[in-house]
Amino acid sequence: MLSGTELAQAQQLLALIKKKLTGPLSIMEVCGTHTTAISKYGLRPLLEPLRLLSGPGCPVCVTAAVDLDRMIALAGTGAIVATFGDLLRVPGSETSLEQAQAEGADIRIVYSPLDALAIAADNPKRPVVFLGVGFETTAPAMALAVKQARERDLSNFYLYSCLKTVVPALHALLAAPHGLDGLLLPGHVSSVIGRRAQDFVASLYGVPAAVVGFGERDILLGIAAVLRMIEEGTPGVVNAYPHVVREEGNLLAQKLLAEVFDTAAAEWRGFGMIPESGLVLKTEFASHDAALHFDLPHASVLREQDPCRCGDVLRGAISPLDCALFADRCLPLTPLGPCMVSSEGACAAYYRYDRKKGVAPA
Amino acid sequence: MKRVLLAHGDGGLYAAALIKDLFLRHFSYPELGKLKDAALLSSIDGRLAVTTDSFVVQPPFFPGGDIGKLSVCGTVNDLVAGGAQPLYLTVSFILEEGLPLEELEVIVVSLADTARSCGVEVVAGDTKVVPRGQADKLYITTTGIGRVDPRLALGAEHVRSGDAVILSGPAGDHGIAVLSCRKGVSFQTQVVSDCAPLNELIETISPYFPALRWLRDPTRGGVGATLNELAESAALDVMLEEKLLPVRPEVRAAAELLGLDPLYLPNEGKMILVVEQEAAVAVRAALREHPLGREAEIIGQVERGTGNVWLRTVLGGTRGVEMPAGLPLPRIC
Questions:
Q1: What is the pLDDT of residue A300?
Q2: Interatomic CA distance for residues A187 and A207, integer angstroms
Q3: What are the extents of the domains in chain A?
Q4: More confident residue, B219 or A360
């Protein structure tokens, strides 16, 4: 909770924002952690008529159904599949990892890829596949795990990389018609890639943006900065999280990523294929690459059947409250799409914090 | 070191020795010593309340308590929340083969002391032993019998828009205390469990019983889940004030670290009271007179609505407090 000084500052910022807001504007919070924080702080109703829209920055949400289908298929063959708990309930095309687990597949929840490495060491005769999702923030830990697997000669450890990078997704988002007046850029990812790497948001697409932290005051500070640029007609990419994010980012983490991963086209839920947006293991780590080692169902065999509108939510085209399935057929325990499952998912956040029971969504 | 053997559950000499040397030394109810199949209770004037609860907390010893104390507090507090004065308790143990008898004795002493401190008699008991690996040290089931206090008329149907919601102390202590000593999660904290019997605390506010509408101890699922149950059954909304919600700074910090919300952390020595608005300040003052209610606070109020719980944040925004779904906190009590 905010200290006295922070609260006073947050209240000042709020008053400033309200003064600047003369009409309805749309600002996207790219990062899922921001979506959840904004809902949890009760900021949405406070900031009306500002429209805060969720973006593609929830790694579980943008993971394609085909990737889950492949892991479910793999788990059925006797491999141990290790992954983050958030992924378990996410629906694939037909079933989920949780369902496969209940039917006997060996699926382990871990908190870090290094835990999966320990499982591999304990089960030398079985293949252990870590289903890795995440952005530049989680990717370094996976790079370390793969390097360690090689050093410790754990030949039964494999990474199935669904890792993605944020910059190509921002290009995909902004190159299409979007109707966004500004962006709040993810603080954690920016701490790795740096502020400078996102200058193109303003210089190429003319959209003002701020790199933003995760407290109430941080978020309000970012919104105030974006509104000022809108007002003055001077789009830029400002750093509103300077005590954490540097111009050039974390060079050590960037070096580690470059050492272990190449970029490749990747499938995003809601966006389809985005060139250069995925991180795949370099050739020298190929022996730990689950995508190369196992005979996995080919993408074209399976079709993405999203009954829900997660894709529209992830592109900021609609708010979760605009989806007819939301809180009706799509619920936290019986989700129809990943945005209702992940702790960073927009639908999960709106369900928890922004919904009124017994009242039909507007 | 002496340990629980499978033979201790055989109903023969070993079992008799365990009962005589351990259980009977610490429980004083005369009927218990006769080792009959059923305890005979004297007649009780008034309506009876009965409740039962199983305790599987892991680990069985945690800062501020243990499974023995917890198994009394949990059941006593359920009776209190049901508007009853707790009188009798039955206790059932499931022991894992190999449990050190010393540990069992510490737990039994703690259970007996807690029962004595709140004036409850342990009148019947049972012990079973299961092979190593088929239980985790020990599980306890307690059943409580109480006399319904005729001065109380409690229930969601009595709750009205405008009533005040009081929490008898800071939220989340038990959850953080237990998690802090969990294998794989362990972290350093000063937080101790709030585990305590609340019959005396509630008795201190007896002058205000006519103003009391609803009582509930927010254990599993915490304040958030408990108030959702209230809102739903009363078909009213509850509006909480974030700035009034008592949470210890160290609980808040640990919860943040673990990605948990103190609103959903379990408590084992707290009561939520819904009282008439006019009596709220006086009830809070009365609660604060008792050591277990020293930090009682009026945390919000009941409003017209459709069964939602809301939180007004420190910045003045309003957000929902949803029923928790699938919290990663197994075996917390």
A1: 47
A2: 18
A3: 22-299+306-354
A4: B219
- The chain B residue lying nearest A217, using CA atoms, is B315
**Phi, psi (rounded to 5 degrees) for B263:** -60, -25
Give the separation between CA B8 and CA B17, rounded to whole angstroms.
8
Domains and CATH numbers, chain B: 6-148 (3.30.1330.10), 156-320 (3.90.650.10)
C-beta of residue A269 within 8 angstroms of C-beta of residue A310: yes
- pLDDT given at position A299: 61
DSSP one-letter code for B305: S
Chain A within 8 Å of B96 (Cβ-Cβ)?
no
Model pLDDT for residues B250-266, shown as the tens digit of each residue: 999 999 888 889 999 99
Per the CB < 8 A criterion, the answer to whether B325 and A332 are in contact is yes
Kindly indicate whether the ipTM for this predicted assembly is greater than 0.85, answering yes or no.
no
What's domain A22-299+306-354's architecture?
A: 3-Layer(aba) Sandwich (3.40)
Number of Cβ within 10 Å of residue A196's Cβ equals 14
User: In this structure, are residues A46 and A71 in contact, taking their beta carbons and an 8 Å threshold?
Assistant: no
Q: Kind of pairing, strands B121-130 and A237-239?
A: unpaired
* B306 Cβ under 8 Å from any chain A Cβ: yes
Residue B237 bridge partners (DSSP): B303
Which of the pair, A270 or A123, is modelled with greater confidence? Answer: A123
Confidence band of A123 (pLDDT split at 50, 70, 90): very high
> Inter-chain contact B319–A353, Cβ cutoff 8 Å?
yes
> Confidence class of residue B326 from pLDDT cuts 50, 70 and 90?
low
Q: Rounded to two decimals, what is the model's pTM?
A: 0.85
What tokens appear for B11 in the block?
A: 């109903």
CA distance B80 to A39: 36
- What's the gap in Å between the CA of A351 and the closest CA on chain B? 8
Quick check: B319 and A2 CB within 8 A? Answer: no
The answer to whether the Cα torsion of B24, B29, B34, B37 is positive or negative is: negative
Interface test with B, best of A352, A354, A355, A359 (most B CBs within 10 A): A352
Contact partners, residue A179, CB within 8 Å, separation at least 6 = A26
CA distance A72 to A95: 8
Report the residue from B259, B311, B320 with minimal CB separation from A354: B320
Q: Which two tokens stand for residue B62?
A: 């945690």
pLDDT for B183 equals 66
Residue of B308, B312, B318 with shortest CB distance to A357: B308
Nearest Cα residue in chain B from A352: B322
pLDDT in tens, A263-322: 999 999 888 999 999 999 999 999 999 999 998 887 644 444 557 899 999 999 999 999
**Residues B156/B272, Cβ–Cβ less than 8 Å:** no
Closest CA to B330 of A228, A195, A85, A263: A85
Tens-digit pLDDT profile for residues A74-99: 998 889 999 998 899 888 888 899 99
